[in-house]
Amino acid sequence: MPIPTASPAGASRPQLLPSRFSIAPNWLVLQPMRNEFDLGDQIWLTDGQHWIGPFPVSSEPIVDEDFALIRRDGEWEACWRRWQGKSQIFSCAAPLPGEPSMPRNVLEASCKGDIAAATVPCDLPPGMPASQVEVPNPFQGLKEGEKLCLECWVEIRIFAVEGDSTMLAVVEWNREWGPEEVPPTPDRRLYVLRPGEAPQTLLPKEERKEAEIGVDAAMFSPDGRFVLIPDFSSMAGQFTTWIVSWPQGDRVNLPGVGVWLRPKPEWLGR
Q1: Cα–Cα distance list, 83 to 6, 66, 93, 210, 266 (Å)
Q2: Strand partners, 28
Q3: Would you place residue 194 in the very low, low, confident or very high pLDDT band (cuts 50, 70, 90)?
Q4: How many helices (DSSP H) and strands (DSSP E) are in the chain?
Q5: pLDDT (tens digit, 9 = 90+) per residue, 179-190?
Q6: Whole-angstrom Cα distance, residue 7 to residue 218?
Q7: For residue 139, which of 163, 160, 158, 118 has the smallest C-alpha distance?
Q8: Is residue 184 exposed (0-12), middle (13-18) or buried (19+ Cβ within 10 Å)?
Q9: Dist. CA 24–CA 98, nearest whole Å
Q10: What is the SS3 string spanning 66-124?
Q11: CA pair distance 24, 28, nearest whole angstrom
Q12: Cα–Cα–Cα angle for 262, 54, 63, nearest 5°?
C-alpha cells in the first residue's frame, strides 16, 4: 500500500480537543469543513490530543466502511480505500502510536409506540441491560397542519455497549408516506437510560448545529467510551460531528465529518 502524498503545507491543522476528550486509544478520521458551505478534500487522524495529516481525499463525505486499522510489521496503520469504477485503491498513513482497544460489541433493539402516549414501553431481547424500558415520547400530540397526526407512530431504537447498564434511546416519529409525498427530514431525539433513574436528554435540539443527526451502532467508539454523532444538513452541504463521552454526556463539536478507526482483519485478505 502506498503512503499518500501530504496535502499543501499551508493546510490548517485542527485545534486540539480539551484534555477530557483524549479519546486514546481510539483514533478517528476527521474531514474538516473548508468553509461554511464546503466540505474539504483533506482528512486528519486524531486521538484528541495529536493530529496526523493532512491527506488528500475527494470532497464527498467520508464513510466508516472505507477506513480501517491494519496491523503490518508489528505496527498499526490507518488505511483507507477509494473506488475507481469497480476497482479499489488502498492507501495507508504512517504507523499510529499505541495499541487499539479490543472492540466491544454494541447491542441494538427496536420497538414502536402510540404517538398519543407520553411514554412508550419497549420490550428488549435477552442480552440487553434490562428486559423492558420506558422511553419518553417527545412527539406526543403531534399535529400535521391543523389536524392531529392520527396515523403516525413513534419509532425507537435502543443501543447498549455489551457489559454496560446504560442505554441510548433514539426516538423519531413516522407514518406511511404516499407516492406523491416527500417525507420530512427525520427529527430524532436522544435519551440516556439508566436503570432506576429518570431518562436524560442527550444533545438537546437547541444545541444542534444543523438539521439532522445520524445514529447507528457504528457511532460508539471501539472501547465504548465515546459516541460520535453526525449533525448535518446534507442538502446545504453543512456537516459537524459531536464527540460525546459515554455515558457522562460531556461533548465537543468539530466542524466536518468524523468516523472511528477500527481494526478490520478482513482487509488483509482483499
Answers
A1: 20, 10, 18, 29, 18
A2: 46, 260
A3: very high
A4: 0, 20
A5: 888 888 889 999
A6: 28
A7: 118
A8: exposed
A9: 9
A10: HEEEEEECCEEEEEEEEEECCEEEEEEEEEECCCCCCCCCEEEEEEEEECCCCEEEEEC
A11: 10
A12: 40
Q: Which amino acid is at 189?
A: R
For residues 243 and 17, what is the distance between their CA atoms, to the nearest angstrom? 10
Cβ atoms of residues 171 and 186 within 8 Å: no
H helices within the chain, ranges in order?
Answer: none
The Cα–Cα gap between 38 and 211 comes to: 16
**In sequence order, which residues have a C-beta less than 8 Å from that of residue 158 and are 6 or more positions away?**
108, 109, 110, 111, 122, 124, 128, 133, 135, 167, 168, 169, 170, 193
86 has pLDDT over 70: yes
Cα–Cα dist 234/54, whole Å:
24
The SS3 assignment for 43 reads strand
Residue of 111, 91, 96, 264 whose CA lies nearest to 193: 111
* Range in 12-16, 153-157, 184-188, 204-208 with the lowest mean pLDDT: 12-16
| 25 preceded by a cis bond (ω within 30 of 0) | yes
Mean pLDDT of the region 22-46: 91
Entry field: residues in the chain = 270
Q: Which three cell numbers stand for residue 46?
A: 486524531
In contact, 69 and 100? CB cutoff 8 Å: yes
| Peptide linkage before 222 cis (omega within 30 of 0) | no
Distance CA 203, CA 98 (A): 31
The span from the CA of 17 to the CA of 252, in Å, is 8
CA pair distance 82, 71, nearest whole angstrom: 20
Asked whether residue 22 carries a pLDDT value surpassing 80, the answer given is yes
